[in-house]
Amino acid sequence: MLRDAIGKTFRLLGYTIQYGCIAHCAFEYLGGVVVCSGPSMEPTIQNSDIVISENLSCHFYSIQKGDIVIAKNPSDPKSNICKRVIGLEGDKVCTSSPSDFIKIHSYVPKGHVWLEGDNLRNSTDSRCYGPVPYGLIKGRICFKLWPLTDFGFLRASPNSNRICKD
């Protein structure tokens, strides 16, 4: 009787570890559900919107200008940020605020991206902390789940004029 109980306990523990590993790999490499907070991506993503992110794009280096990504915050590695890719390595980007009279440009260095929030007046982004290393990108947001009124693929940037086309 004791032997059966111990055997069942170890089997349950084994299954738990196996399924835990599968879940970890799925969330780490495939993607997951993300709850966004903060005003920096308004009006595209509002505070408390629920989105789906996929992680394969950043593993295969297929992030493009205009994509919305989840990345580690360069200023605080314990938190994540949700921003739009404005420039890839080698691109010329405007590093000044939209309200600045004199526009300053620079080039995105190799292995980095330039990230900005859609709400330019209320966003801490690459204009504050500079280009973000590509390795800090965790995933690309591809779909909005909540609220149901906005269910579907994300809309284009309201600041599309800041994204320089090739």
TrEMBL record:
GO terms for molecular function: peptidase activity. GO terms for biological process: proteolysis. Keywords: Hydrolase, Membrane, Mitochondrion, Mitochondrion inner membrane, Protease. Residues 20-96, 105-146 form the Peptidase S26 domain. Its EC number is 3.4.21.-. It is found in: Mitochondrion inner membrane. It is an enzyme of class 3 (hydrolase). It holds the Pfam family Peptidase_S26. Its main location: mitochondrion. InterPro entries: LexA/Signal_pep-like_sf, Mito_IMP1_subunit, Pept_S26A_signal_pept_1, Peptidase_S26. Gene3D superfamilies: Umud Fragment, subunit A. Belongs to the peptidase S26 family. IMP1 subfamily. Heterodimer of 2 subunits, IMMPL1 and IMMPL2. This is Mitochondrial inner membrane protease subunit. It comes from Gekko japonicus (Schlegel's Japanese gecko).
